[in-house]
Amino acid sequence: MIELPDRRITPWVGRLLAINAVVLLLQQTIFTSEYLAQLLSFDSSLTLQRPWTLVTYMFVHGGIFHLAANSLALFVFGPPVERRFGSPTFIAYYMLCGIGAALFSMVLHAFQLGLEPFVGASGAIIGVAYAFSRLFPDAQMMVFPIPVPIKAKWLILMLAAYDVLGLYVIHDGIAHGAHLGGLLTGVVYFVIRGIGRPIDSFPLPSIRRRVPVVARGGDGTSQQPLITTATAPVPPSGERQHGIEEALEIDRVLDKISATGLGSLTTEERRFLDTVARRRRDMN
Known about the structure:
- It is built from ten helices and four strands, in the order H-H-H-H-H-H-E-E-H-H-E-E-H-H.
- With 284 residues, the protein is mainly alpha-helical.
- The protein has a two-stranded antiparallel sheet with strand order 1-2. The chain has a two-stranded antiparallel sheet with strand order 3-4.
- The two termini are 32 Å apart.
Protein backbone atom coordinates (compact mmCIF):
# COMPACT_ATOMS: atom_id res chain seq x y z
CA MET A 1 0.00 0.00 0.00
CA ILE A 2 1.43 3.36 -1.05
CA GLU A 3 1.14 6.03 1.59
CA LEU A 4 -0.96 8.97 0.46
CA PRO A 5 0.37 12.51 0.85
CA ASP A 6 -0.57 14.64 3.84
CA ARG A 7 -4.09 15.97 3.30
CA ARG A 8 -4.47 18.49 6.09
CA ILE A 9 -6.42 21.51 4.88
CA THR A 10 -4.25 24.01 3.00
CA PRO A 11 -5.01 27.75 2.75
CA TRP A 12 -6.79 27.95 -0.60
CA VAL A 13 -8.56 24.62 -0.27
CA GLY A 14 -9.98 25.83 3.04
CA ARG A 15 -11.04 29.16 1.54
CA LEU A 16 -12.71 27.52 -1.45
CA LEU A 17 -14.61 25.08 0.76
CA ALA A 18 -15.80 27.98 2.94
CA ILE A 19 -16.75 30.24 0.01
CA ASN A 20 -18.77 27.50 -1.70
CA ALA A 21 -20.60 26.66 1.54
CA VAL A 22 -21.38 30.32 2.31
CA VAL A 23 -22.67 30.97 -1.22
CA LEU A 24 -25.04 27.99 -1.02
CA LEU A 25 -26.23 29.10 2.41
CA LEU A 26 -26.97 32.59 1.09
CA GLN A 27 -28.72 31.09 -1.94
CA GLN A 28 -31.06 29.10 0.23
CA THR A 29 -31.74 31.71 2.92
CA ILE A 30 -31.41 35.32 1.70
CA PHE A 31 -30.81 35.47 -2.05
CA THR A 32 -33.44 32.95 -3.11
CA SER A 33 -34.35 34.59 -6.42
CA GLU A 34 -34.23 32.21 -9.38
CA TYR A 35 -33.21 35.11 -11.58
CA LEU A 36 -30.08 35.70 -9.47
CA ALA A 37 -29.11 32.05 -9.86
CA GLN A 38 -29.48 32.42 -13.64
CA LEU A 39 -27.28 35.52 -13.61
CA LEU A 40 -24.47 33.51 -11.98
CA SER A 41 -24.78 30.23 -13.94
CA PHE A 42 -22.93 29.58 -17.20
CA ASP A 43 -24.78 29.58 -20.50
CA SER A 44 -22.82 29.71 -23.77
CA SER A 45 -25.53 31.66 -25.56
CA LEU A 46 -25.25 34.47 -22.99
CA THR A 47 -21.48 34.59 -22.44
CA LEU A 48 -20.97 37.89 -24.27
CA GLN A 49 -23.76 39.52 -22.28
CA ARG A 50 -22.65 37.93 -18.99
CA PRO A 51 -18.85 37.40 -19.16
CA TRP A 52 -18.62 37.20 -15.37
CA THR A 53 -20.35 33.81 -15.50
CA LEU A 54 -17.05 32.26 -16.70
CA VAL A 55 -16.03 32.59 -13.05
CA THR A 56 -19.18 32.88 -10.96
CA TYR A 57 -20.68 29.53 -12.01
CA MET A 58 -17.85 27.77 -10.13
CA PHE A 59 -19.07 29.09 -6.78
CA VAL A 60 -22.75 28.26 -7.22
CA HIS A 61 -24.14 24.77 -6.58
CA GLY A 62 -27.44 23.09 -7.29
CA GLY A 63 -28.02 21.90 -3.73
CA ILE A 64 -26.45 20.37 -0.64
CA PHE A 65 -25.61 17.03 -2.28
CA HIS A 66 -23.96 18.74 -5.25
CA LEU A 67 -21.90 20.85 -2.86
CA ALA A 68 -21.04 17.85 -0.66
CA ALA A 69 -19.74 15.79 -3.60
CA ASN A 70 -17.57 18.62 -4.90
CA SER A 71 -16.32 19.52 -1.42
CA LEU A 72 -15.31 15.92 -0.74
CA ALA A 73 -13.37 15.72 -4.00
CA LEU A 74 -11.64 19.05 -3.34
CA PHE A 75 -10.79 17.94 0.22
CA VAL A 76 -9.21 14.70 -1.08
CA PHE A 77 -7.27 15.98 -4.08
CA GLY A 78 -6.68 19.65 -3.27
CA PRO A 79 -4.27 19.83 -0.29
CA PRO A 80 -1.49 17.63 -1.75
CA VAL A 81 -1.64 19.56 -5.03
CA GLU A 82 -1.60 22.94 -3.27
CA ARG A 83 1.43 21.88 -1.20
CA ARG A 84 3.32 20.80 -4.30
CA PHE A 85 2.31 23.83 -6.43
CA GLY A 86 2.37 26.44 -3.70
CA SER A 87 -0.79 28.41 -2.85
CA PRO A 88 -0.56 31.18 -5.53
CA THR A 89 0.02 28.68 -8.34
CA PHE A 90 -2.69 26.36 -7.01
CA ILE A 91 -5.48 28.97 -7.01
CA ALA A 92 -4.39 30.21 -10.45
CA TYR A 93 -4.49 26.61 -11.74
CA TYR A 94 -7.89 26.01 -10.12
CA MET A 95 -9.41 29.10 -11.75
CA LEU A 96 -7.75 28.28 -15.08
CA CYS A 97 -9.32 24.79 -15.09
CA GLY A 98 -12.72 26.25 -14.18
CA ILE A 99 -12.61 28.83 -16.96
CA GLY A 100 -11.26 26.21 -19.37
CA ALA A 101 -14.19 23.95 -18.48
CA ALA A 102 -16.67 26.70 -19.42
CA LEU A 103 -14.88 27.55 -22.68
CA PHE A 104 -14.71 23.90 -23.71
CA SER A 105 -18.41 23.55 -22.99
CA MET A 106 -18.99 26.56 -25.24
CA VAL A 107 -17.19 24.76 -28.09
CA LEU A 108 -19.22 21.59 -27.51
CA HIS A 109 -22.44 23.60 -27.42
CA ALA A 110 -21.70 24.79 -30.96
CA PHE A 111 -21.91 21.13 -32.01
CA GLN A 112 -25.09 20.52 -30.02
CA LEU A 113 -23.22 18.58 -27.35
CA GLY A 114 -23.16 19.02 -23.59
CA LEU A 115 -25.61 20.33 -21.02
CA GLU A 116 -26.27 24.01 -20.38
CA PRO A 117 -26.80 26.13 -18.37
CA PHE A 118 -24.81 24.65 -15.50
CA VAL A 119 -23.27 25.55 -12.14
CA GLY A 120 -20.70 23.98 -9.84
CA ALA A 121 -16.96 23.63 -9.28
CA SER A 122 -16.71 20.16 -10.85
CA GLY A 123 -14.72 21.31 -13.90
CA ALA A 124 -12.09 23.03 -11.75
CA ILE A 125 -11.97 20.14 -9.28
CA ILE A 126 -11.48 17.46 -11.92
CA GLY A 127 -8.57 19.59 -13.15
CA VAL A 128 -7.15 19.40 -9.62
CA ALA A 129 -7.78 15.62 -9.62
CA TYR A 130 -5.78 15.35 -12.85
CA ALA A 131 -2.91 17.31 -11.25
CA PHE A 132 -3.03 14.91 -8.29
CA SER A 133 -2.80 11.93 -10.68
CA ARG A 134 0.28 13.47 -12.32
CA LEU A 135 2.02 14.36 -9.07
CA PHE A 136 1.05 11.20 -7.14
CA PRO A 137 0.23 8.61 -9.85
CA ASP A 138 0.60 5.55 -7.61
CA ALA A 139 -1.40 6.88 -4.64
CA GLN A 140 -4.07 4.33 -3.69
CA MET A 141 -7.64 5.66 -3.77
CA MET A 142 -10.78 4.03 -2.39
CA VAL A 143 -13.88 4.82 -4.45
CA PHE A 144 -17.35 3.71 -3.40
CA PRO A 145 -18.69 1.17 -4.32
CA ILE A 146 -15.48 -0.37 -5.76
CA PRO A 147 -14.14 -2.72 -3.05
CA VAL A 148 -10.44 -2.48 -3.97
CA PRO A 149 -8.04 0.49 -4.02
CA ILE A 150 -7.31 2.12 -7.38
CA LYS A 151 -4.16 4.01 -8.29
CA ALA A 152 -4.75 7.69 -8.97
CA LYS A 153 -3.45 7.41 -12.54
CA TRP A 154 -6.10 4.79 -13.36
CA LEU A 155 -8.85 6.60 -11.47
CA ILE A 156 -8.48 9.74 -13.59
CA LEU A 157 -8.73 7.63 -16.75
CA MET A 158 -11.92 6.04 -15.42
CA LEU A 159 -13.38 9.48 -14.68
CA ALA A 160 -12.48 10.69 -18.18
CA ALA A 161 -14.07 7.60 -19.76
CA TYR A 162 -17.24 8.10 -17.72
CA ASP A 163 -17.50 11.73 -18.82
CA VAL A 164 -17.01 10.78 -22.48
CA LEU A 165 -19.82 8.23 -22.15
CA GLY A 166 -21.92 10.81 -20.33
CA LEU A 167 -21.40 13.27 -23.16
CA TYR A 168 -22.59 10.89 -25.88
CA VAL A 169 -24.57 8.08 -24.23
CA ILE A 170 -25.58 8.69 -20.62
CA HIS A 171 -28.10 11.50 -20.17
CA ASP A 172 -28.02 11.98 -16.42
CA GLY A 173 -28.33 15.75 -16.11
CA ILE A 174 -24.60 16.25 -15.40
CA ALA A 175 -22.44 18.69 -17.38
CA HIS A 176 -19.94 16.07 -18.55
CA GLY A 177 -18.59 18.45 -21.19
CA ALA A 178 -17.49 20.88 -18.47
CA HIS A 179 -15.78 18.02 -16.62
CA LEU A 180 -13.84 17.11 -19.74
CA GLY A 181 -12.97 20.76 -20.29
CA GLY A 182 -11.45 21.06 -16.83
CA LEU A 183 -9.47 17.86 -17.30
CA LEU A 184 -8.19 18.88 -20.75
CA THR A 185 -7.16 22.27 -19.39
CA GLY A 186 -5.10 20.45 -16.78
CA VAL A 187 -3.50 18.30 -19.49
CA VAL A 188 -2.56 21.38 -21.52
CA TYR A 189 -1.15 23.06 -18.41
CA PHE A 190 1.14 20.11 -17.67
CA VAL A 191 2.23 19.86 -21.31
CA ILE A 192 3.26 23.53 -21.31
CA ARG A 193 4.85 23.13 -17.89
CA GLY A 194 6.82 20.13 -19.17
CA ILE A 195 8.09 22.10 -22.17
CA GLY A 196 9.33 24.72 -19.72
CA ARG A 197 11.26 21.98 -17.83
CA PRO A 198 10.37 23.14 -14.30
CA ILE A 199 12.91 22.80 -11.52
CA ASP A 200 10.90 20.19 -9.65
CA SER A 201 11.24 17.81 -12.62
CA PHE A 202 14.96 17.51 -11.85
CA PRO A 203 15.27 15.91 -8.40
CA LEU A 204 18.42 16.96 -6.63
CA PRO A 205 20.57 14.42 -4.82
CA SER A 206 20.52 14.83 -1.08
CA ILE A 207 23.35 16.97 0.30
CA ARG A 208 22.51 16.45 3.97
CA ARG A 209 25.23 14.75 5.98
CA ARG A 210 24.81 10.97 6.15
CA VAL A 211 25.82 9.08 9.28
CA PRO A 212 26.66 5.37 8.91
CA VAL A 213 24.58 2.96 11.01
CA VAL A 214 26.77 0.57 12.98
CA ALA A 215 25.70 -2.81 14.36
CA ARG A 216 27.00 -3.63 17.84
CA GLY A 217 27.76 -6.99 19.29
CA GLY A 218 26.29 -8.33 22.47
CA ASP A 219 29.28 -7.11 24.47
CA GLY A 220 28.73 -3.53 23.21
CA THR A 221 31.72 -3.52 20.85
CA SER A 222 31.29 -2.02 17.40
CA GLN A 223 31.01 -4.38 14.46
CA GLN A 224 31.02 -3.69 10.69
CA PRO A 225 28.90 -0.72 9.51
CA LEU A 226 25.52 -1.71 8.08
CA ILE A 227 25.63 1.30 5.77
CA THR A 228 28.83 2.64 4.32
CA THR A 229 29.48 5.73 2.25
CA ALA A 230 32.27 6.29 -0.22
CA THR A 231 34.86 8.87 0.75
CA ALA A 232 35.67 11.56 -1.77
CA PRO A 233 39.02 13.32 -2.09
CA VAL A 234 39.22 16.31 0.23
CA PRO A 235 38.99 19.48 -1.87
CA PRO A 236 41.13 22.56 -1.22
CA SER A 237 39.91 24.75 1.62
CA GLY A 238 38.42 27.42 -0.69
CA GLU A 239 36.40 24.87 -2.66
CA ARG A 240 35.43 23.09 0.55
CA GLN A 241 34.08 26.33 2.03
CA HIS A 242 32.15 27.07 -1.18
CA GLY A 243 30.69 23.55 -1.12
CA ILE A 244 29.56 23.97 2.49
CA GLU A 245 27.90 27.31 1.71
CA GLU A 246 26.18 25.85 -1.33
CA ALA A 247 24.97 22.84 0.66
CA LEU A 248 23.54 25.11 3.36
CA GLU A 249 21.77 27.24 0.74
CA ILE A 250 20.29 24.15 -0.94
CA ASP A 251 19.05 22.93 2.43
CA ARG A 252 17.44 26.31 3.09
CA VAL A 253 15.69 26.41 -0.28
CA LEU A 254 14.50 22.80 -0.05
CA ASP A 255 13.13 23.48 3.43
CA LYS A 256 11.27 26.50 2.03
CA ILE A 257 9.75 24.35 -0.74
CA SER A 258 8.69 21.77 1.82
CA ALA A 259 7.05 24.40 4.01
CA THR A 260 5.38 26.72 1.49
CA GLY A 261 5.57 25.03 -1.93
CA LEU A 262 7.59 25.57 -5.10
CA GLY A 263 5.57 28.64 -6.02
CA SER A 264 7.01 30.56 -3.06
CA LEU A 265 10.56 30.60 -4.48
CA THR A 266 12.03 33.83 -5.78
CA THR A 267 13.52 34.10 -9.27
CA GLU A 268 17.03 34.01 -7.78
CA GLU A 269 16.26 30.85 -5.77
CA ARG A 270 14.83 29.10 -8.84
CA ARG A 271 17.88 30.08 -10.90
CA PHE A 272 20.18 28.83 -8.13
CA LEU A 273 18.46 25.41 -7.95
CA ASP A 274 18.42 25.12 -11.75
CA THR A 275 22.17 25.82 -11.91
CA VAL A 276 22.99 23.27 -9.20
CA ALA A 277 20.75 20.62 -10.76
CA ARG A 278 22.29 21.12 -14.21
CA ARG A 279 25.85 20.93 -12.86
CA ARG A 280 25.15 17.74 -10.89
CA ARG A 281 23.50 16.10 -13.89
CA ASP A 282 26.56 16.92 -15.99
CA MET A 283 28.84 15.39 -13.32
CA ASN A 284 26.90 12.06 -13.32
